[in-house]
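Morning run. Coffee first, then this:
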Amino acid sequence: MKRVRPAAGPKGINVALGVATAMGFMGGFLYSYQKSSLRFWGWEENVREQAMNRKEMDARAAAGLPAYGEPTMDEAAQAAAARNSKFAALKFENTSIEK
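And here it is:
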């Protein structure tokens, strides 16, 4: 067997490599998810989206419209939604209601 597969070692190494690969994929996914969230929040520079947003907001202001449209929820629901979603992408833990 050593001639066919010289790198084949003890059985435990295959499990360890599988676990390390799975952890690497999960860590890479979480890293890229967090990086994209930082970009959408504006914590990292994103010139193209900033220019598009500026153009849209200037057009809405010139037309006399509110910046982000008329709200469809009451203020209490808006406040609850803001509290629940603020920095949600940074919370990689179980945040169940029953703590």
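The mean pLDDT is 79. Good start to the day.
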